[in-house]
Amino acid sequence: MYGGLTEFIGGIQAGYNFQAGHLLFGVEGDFGGATFAHPTLPTPTLGSVSQNWIGTIAGRVGLVEDRWLVYGKFGGGWVQSNASLNFPGVTWQGSNTSSGWLAGVGIEYGFKSHWTIKLEYDQIFLGNWTSTTVPPIQLNRDVQMVKFGANYKFQSGLPDTIAPTKTGHSAKPEHSAHPSENEDLAKQSQNPIADLVSVPFQSNTNFNAGPFNRTQEVLNIQPVVPLRLNADWNLISRTIMPVISQPSPFFNSNTNGIGDITQEFFVSPTHPGPLIWGVGPVFTIPSATDPILGQGKVLLGPTAVALVTPGHWVIGVLANNQWSVGGNPLRPSVNQFLVQPFINYNMAHGWYLTSSPIMTANWLAAPGQQWTVPIGGGFGRLFKLGDQPVSASIQGFYNVVRPDGAPTWQLRAFLSLLFPEK
After folding, report:
1. By three-state DSSP, how is residue 75 classified?
2. How would DSSP label each residue in 321-359?
3. Mind listing the UniProt keywords for this protein, alphabetically (predicted)?
4. How confident is the model at residue 409 (pLDDT cuts 50, 70, 90)?
5. Nearest to 47, CA basis, from 84, 74, 6
6. Beta carbons of 269 and 233 less than 8 angstroms apart
7. Which one is the CATH code of 9-152: 3.10.20.30, 3.40.50.300, 2.40.160.20, 3.30.1360.70?
8. With contact defined as beta carbons under 8 Å apart, do 370 and 401 qualify?
9. Could you read off the pLDDT of 312-330 as tens digits, one per residue?
10. d(CA 346, CA 313)
11. CA 30, CA 77: separation in Å to the nearest integer?
C-alpha cells in the first residue's frame, strides 16, 4: 500500500466491566460507519481500498487508579471493504467482508460518577487482498484507528469527591418535581457551558434552497461533556456532527450523508459571578462523506460564550470565527463567522419561550452576499420520559438577509437528553 488517508469514523459501543481491587477486566464491542479510502497505488485514481463499516469485539484488562484507567485490549474485527483498480490493461472491482485480529491500548477517565471519556488506539490486522487480475495486485486492508469516546455507566463508579459546591452555574439538581428545581435544570439545559452532560439533537429544515427551491435538512448531533480541570475551572467539550440532505446546485436531487464535524472547547470558571462565560478554540475537520456536503478544509479559530440568568431569564451570546489552515488545496479558502444570540424565558410546568437565531458571515464572499441573518423564535418544554429528563422545543425563522440562492425559511426542532448528577 502506498500511504493512506486520515478520515472519519463514528459509531456506538457497549460493554461490561468487572473490577477487582486495582484490576479491571471487561469485554466490549463496537460498530461504526467509515468514510475513508486509502490508495493502493501512487495515484489514488488508479487503485484504492475503501472501508464502509467496521465492527469489533474484544476483551480488555486495565489498571485503575482513582478516576483513571489504563488498559490494553485484544480481540477481533470485521470490515466491509470495496476495492478498485483502473490502469492500462487492468480493470477490476471487488467487495467483501473480512475479519482479522485486533489489538489496542487506551486511557479512560471518570469525570462524573456515571460518565467516562476515553482515548484509544486500535489496529485491525486483516492481511492482504489479492485481486483476480493478471498480474495479481496485493491490496493492503489493515486499519489503524484513533478513537475518542464518551461512555455512560449504568452503575456508578467512584463518588464525585471533587464535585463543586452548588452554584448558579454548576449546580446539579436532584430529580424532583419541585418547580424551582425544574427551572434550575431548564436553565442549565439552556446554558451552553453548564456543568451538565447533555446530548442535543437539532433538526434544521431549510426551505426554498438552491436553484430548484428544494428543501435542505441538517440534523446536528451535538453532545456536550463538561470536564473538571480543578476546583476553579471546567473544560466543556461541545461536538457538532451534521447529518445532511443537501440539494444539488446542478440537478433536481439531494445528496445525503455526514458533513464536516466541528469541535469546540470552552474553559469556564466553576464559580462565576453574575456573568457566566467561557472561551477556547474551535476547529472543523473535513469529514464530509461527499464533496457537496463539506468545505474540504481544516478550519481553526477562537470561540466564546457569555450569558446571564436573572430571574426566569437565560440571556447570552455564542460567537466564533474560523479560518482554513489546511485540507484540499483545490477547494476555496474559508474565513467564516458565526454568532448565536439566545434568549429564554422559563414559565410554569417546564414551559419556556425561546429565540436562538444562528447568524453567519462568509467574509470572502462578494459584497451583499456575505451575511445570513434570521429572525424568529418559538417555545419549548422540559419534561421526563420515564426517569429521563428531556428538553424539547420548536422554532421558526425567516432570513431577512441572505445570499442569492440561500433558503428563505427555517424550521428548527430541538430535543436534548439531559443527564444531571443523581
Report:
1. strand
2. EEEEEEE-TTSPP-EEEEEEEEEEEE-GGGEEEEE---E
3. Cell outer membrane, Membrane, Signal
4. very high
5. 84
6. yes
7. 2.40.160.20
8. no
9. 999 999 999 999 999 888 8
10. 6
11. 9
Q: What is the pLDDT of residue 288?
A: 84
Cα 206 to chain centroid, rounded = 21
Q: Are 385 and 363 in contact (CB under 8 A)?
A: no
- C-alpha span between 405 and 374 (Å, rounded): 15
- Say yes or no: domain 179-419 is CATH 3.20.20.70: no
127 vs 124: CA distance, rounded Å: 9
CB-based contacts of 192, cutoff 8 Å, min separation 6:
224, 236, 238, 266, 278, 305, 307, 316, 318
> Which conformational region is residue 21 in: left (phi greater than 0), alpha (psi within -120 to 50 degrees), or beta?
left
Let me know if 69 is exposed, middle or buried by CB neighbors in 10 A (0-12, 13-18, 19+).
buried
DSSP secondary-structure letter at 186? Answer: H
Residue with cell 424568529: 376
Single out the residue of 10, 18, 30 nearest to residue 153, CA to CA: 18
Give domain limits for the chain.
9-152, 179-419
Nearest to 261 by CA among 1, 7, 2: 7
Helix (H, G, I), strand (E, B) or coil at 182: helix
The pLDDT, as a whole number, for residue 2 is: 35
Within 132-232, residue ranges assigned H as helices are 179-189
CB 235 within 8 A of CB 226: yes
Residue 339, judged by CB atoms within 10 A of its CB (0-12, 13-18, 19+), counts as: middle
Mean pLDDT of 147-154: 86
Q: Are 252 and 214 in contact (CB under 8 A)?
A: yes
